């Protein structure tokens, strides 16, 4: 039987730059560049994405930007869906750089795209909440938060206000977790927010405040190596029932460990497209569940379908 797939973590457009409208343009063709994202995928995501070496980090940051320009358009997203025979892609905008409207428009052109929205922190809190409610009426399936790119901590009152709109409706909220830079030293964008805003403890504090909400720390808590253990510890200690995570940048061994630690019902397949490599991510996740068809179908499809209100 064909593996049903919902990719719970993908992006459309340039999530790093405001007003770089690439979503509806033809993909760019760039000269060949060193691509650690590709190498990591081909290596089975055995190494952490974020290394300490500054040169390696700069190469990674460059590659991330190049991948966006090459693969961030709707045309590329559709090709990716087709190539990997995906059923759905959850598409996560990050204001002020990419918007719900952009993602919603893409979902009308490609119904396999499921749009999330992002809080507009430039608005007064009440207006921000009203806009989010309007987005839900328009078709937003959940909320994406990015504390580093948005420069708002997960423990900020404005974050709470946005999260409550979705949590009270039992709609999923996912947040970037991971202490990493998005811009190289000297970039005019550097230090809009400190990378420490991505530290897992902020997310854990958010979950502690709202244990009844569906909250999804992305990347199993981070991309530096062992954050998933800290996340799993907290989930077990507090007996949180509504915390999920995605498998982006995780190899077979970590996925298996996560199943042991937080259970197959709480894991969502995700690639972090355009940064993750779908082909290897799918293969690794299948390998982690070899001989366990039912658990594989949960992680690839049913867990996400339940959160998104899709009939499984
Ligand atoms: Zn992402």
What is the strand and helix layout of this fold?
Layout: E1 6-10, H1 36-42, H2 54-71, H3 74-83, E2 88-91, H4 100-109, E3 113-115, H5 125-138, E4 143-145, H6 147-150, H7 157-167, E5 173-175, H8 200-209, E6 215-217, H9 227-238, E7 245-246, H10 252-262, E8 267-268, H11 278-288, H12 293-308
Parallel strand pairs: 1-2, 2-3, 4-5, 5-6, 7-8
Bound ligands: zinc ion
CATH homologous superfamily - what is it? Metal-dependent hydrolases
Strand content: 5-15%
CATH topology: TIM Barrel
Bulk shape: globular
Helicity range: 40-55%
Q: What strand line-up does the widest sheet have?
A: 1-2-3
Helix and strand pattern: EHHHEHEHEHHEHEHEHEHH
Q: Main β-sheet: number of strands, strand sense, barrel status? A: 3 strands, parallel
Unreliable segments (pLDDT under 50, ≥5 consecutive)? none
Separation of the first and last Cα atoms: 15 Å
Helix tally equals 12
Q: Which secondary-structure class do the elements indicate? A: mainly alpha
CATH class: Alpha Beta
How would you characterize the overall build of this protein?
The protein has 312 residues and is mainly alpha-helical. It has a single domain, classed as Alpha-Beta Barrel (TIM Barrel), CATH 3.20.20. Helix content is 43%, strand content 8%. The protein is built from twelve helices and eight strands. The strands form three sheets. A three-stranded parallel β-sheet has the order 1-2-3. Helix 4 links the parallel strand 2 and strand 3. Helix 9 runs parallel beside helix 10 and helix 10 crosses helix 11. The radius of gyration is 18 Å and the shape is globular. The two termini are 15 Å apart. The mean pLDDT is 95.
């Amino acid at each position: 039987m064909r593996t049903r797939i919902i990719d719970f973590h993908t992006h459309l457009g340039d999530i790093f730059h405001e007003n770089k409208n690439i979503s509806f343009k033809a993909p760019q063709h760039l000269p060949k560049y060193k691509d650690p994202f590709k190498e990591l995928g081909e290596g089975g995501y055995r190494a952490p994405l974020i290394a300490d070496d500054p040169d390696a980090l700069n190469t990674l940051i460059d590659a991330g930007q190049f991948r966006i320009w090459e693969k961030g358009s709707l045309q590329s997203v559709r090709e990716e869906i087709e190539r990997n025979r995906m059923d759905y892609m959850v598409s996560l905008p990050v204001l002020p750089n990419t918007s719900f409207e952009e993602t919603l428009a893409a979902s009308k052109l490609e119904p396999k795209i499921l749009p999330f929205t992002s809080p507009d922190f430039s608005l007064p809190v009440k207006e921000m909440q009203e806009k989010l409610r309007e987005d839900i009426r328009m078709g937003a399936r959940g909320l994406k938060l990015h504390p580093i790119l948005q420069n708002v901590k997960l423990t900020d009152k404005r974050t709470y206000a946005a999260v409550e709109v979705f949590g009270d409706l039992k709609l999923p909220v996912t947040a970037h977790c991971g202490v990493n830079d998005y811009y190289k030293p000297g970039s005019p964008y550097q230090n809009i927010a400190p990378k420490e805003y991505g530290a897992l403890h902020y997310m854990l504090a958010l979950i502690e405040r709202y244990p009844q909400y569906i909250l999804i720390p992305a990347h199993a808590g981070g991309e530096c190596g062992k954050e998933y253990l800290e996340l799993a510890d907290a989930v077990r200690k507090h007996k949180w029932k509504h915390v999920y995570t995605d498998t982006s940048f995780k190899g077979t061994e970590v996925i298996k460990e996560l199943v042991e630690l937080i259970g197959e019902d709480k894991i969502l397949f995700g690639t972090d497209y355009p940064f993750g490599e779908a082909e290897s991510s799918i293969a690794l996740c299948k390998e982690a569940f070899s001989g366990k068809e039912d658990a594989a179908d949960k992680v690839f499809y049913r867990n996400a379908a339940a959160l998104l209100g899709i009939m499984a």
